[in-house]
Specification:
The chain is mainly alpha-helical. It has one domain (about 35-210). It is built from 10 helices and 2 strands. It has helices at about 1-30, 45-60, 70-85, 95-115, 120-130, 135-145, 160, 165, 170-185, 185-210, and strands at about 35, 155. Helix 1 (about 1-30) runs antiparallel to helix 9 and helix 2 (about 45-60) crosses helix 3. The termini are far apart.
């Protein structure tokens, strides 16, 4: 399988480099600051970008492309973790019960999804809907993956949002290409490719850490 995948990986990675350079040029001429441009960050940043991000993002975005009870439970867990982590500490409840509520949501919601979809008739019905609308789902997931990376930029204005396709060009390409890889070769190929791609924006940080 890897021998069949290798040429497509080389082509995809080469295109990703070109699009990464285009993204940098657009960011430079629009005066935007890319959060990852602080090259003095530590190894924890490299670990997050090269290991954690591919696992989380592939599980969240590509996990929905082939709906199964276990995979959708994982998607539910990751989505809940993102929402809980982003808003933790700001909930309108006492701090004493925030942790139990967070744990309950992280454990309970995925379990509910898993148990609900374990009923064969429900899973079969969901898969029929997926098959009927797969092209739309694929496009929405790929574009959503790209646009969510606007959060990498600071101080966005309305004009910048109009330029979103250029500012997120590598991620938009990755959304479509990684979706294709996931459907053709499997989830772990997509995760591995995503991790290798993420070495590119992390390379300057790695170089800084190795030389200082």
């Amino acid at each position: 399988m890897w021998l069949l995948f290798w040429p497509k990986f080389v082509i995809g990675f080469s295109l990703a480099i070109v699009m990464f350079l285009v993204q940098k040029l657009v960011g430079h001429y629009t005066g935007l600051t890319f959060e990852r441009d602080d090259y003095a960050k530590g190894w924890s940043f490299v670990l997050a970008v090269v290991v954690v991000a591919p696992l989380v993002e592939e599980g969240l975005f590509r996990g929905v492309l082939k709906p199964r009870a276990g995979q959708l439970a994982v998607v539910t867990f990751l989505l809940t973790a993102c929402v809980v982590g982003h808003n933790y500490g700001e909930w309108p409840v006492r701090k004493l019960i925030q942790l139990p509520v967070a744990v309950g949501l992280l454990a309970g919601l995925p379990l509910l999804v898993y148990r609900w979809l374990r009923i064969p008739q429900r899973m079969a019905g969901l898969q029929r809907v997926w098959q009927a609308h797969f092209r739309l789902i694929f496009y929405v997931v790929a574009i959503g993956f790209g646009l969510v990376h606007l959060s990498n930029y600071q101080e966005l204005t309305g004009w910048h949002y109009l330029m979103a396709p250029l500012l997120t060009l590598p991620q938009l390409f990755a959304g479509f290409y990684l979706g294709y890889v996931r459907m053709t070769y499997g989830m772990w190929y997509g995760i591995a490719l995503h991790a290798i791609w993420n070495v590119l924006p992390a390379s300057l940080t790695i170089a800084h850490l190795l030389t200082h």
